[in-house]
Amino acid sequence: MASHSPTLLSMANKMVLPLFFAFSVLASFSHALVQDFCVADLKSPDTPAGFPCKKVSLVTEKDFVYSGLGVAGNTSNLIKAAVTPAFTAQFPGVNGLGISLARLDLAVGGVIPFHTHPAASEVLLVVEGTICAGFVSSANTVYFKTLNKGDIMVFPQGLLHFQINSGKGGALGFVSFSSANPGLQILDFALFGNELPTDIVAKTTFLDPATIKKLKGVLGGSG
Q: How far, in Å, CA of 223 to CA of 71, rounded?
């Protein structure tokens, strides 16, 4: 049996990975070009990959238009703020496109507490008022800035971030996300808005039980 040259084998091995990568990219492009869009069929169950596509014959221009962001949200609540989403559930046309938006209304003293979006990065555009916004990196470095009308700020995917109305009047912003369903977890509710026992919360946060029970009472938690 003929022996193979070590040099030829080495060259072949070096070519395998680039060729595999090239074919993978081509395959992904081919899959993406199979259809122009995938309007969400909201009558079907959601999946990790998004909603199934509505039949093209049932798609209309209404699926690609959403007017909900033109209406101010109700800020008569604990945080004096409202977020009006335009995610897949409200705006089926963004399904599978990797984009979505939301409207952010902040009354005087309003705040969007520390929260994360596990599935998306976020960009905030301030339209009215003044908003103090920031995020904490995985190295616990804090980046925050007071934003005025026309300013934008980006919040990397998965990092804790916040927005506070730091002005004397109401504030309005619009946010865009790099996912049709960015996900949301608010830190305060994750700690105090559930049935996690007070003694466990105390041990993991170093807060005294009285404070924890008070916060649970405000945020609807128990235990």
A: 38
**What pLDDT, in 10s, does the model give residues 108-119?**
999 999 999 999
Q: What is the mean pLDDT of residues 141-147?
A: 98
Res. 31: pLDDT tops 60: no
pTM of the model: 0.81
- The residue written with tokens 């070519």 in the block is 15
C-beta atoms surrounding 80 within 10 Å: 17
CB-based contact 174:103 (threshold 8 Å)? yes
- What is the rounded distance in angstroms from the CA atom of residue 179 to the CA atom of residue 98? 4
At residue 4, the pLDDT reads: 52
CA distances from 215 to 2, 181, 183, 198, 205 (A): 77, 29, 24, 10, 13
Q: Which helix (H) or strand (E) holds 134?
A: strand 131-136
Tell me if residue 83 falls in helix, strand or coil. strand
CB proximity list for 170: less than 8 A, separation 6 or greater = 75, 105, 106, 107, 108, 110, 128, 129
Q: What's the CA gap between 112 and 96, in Å, rounded?
A: 27
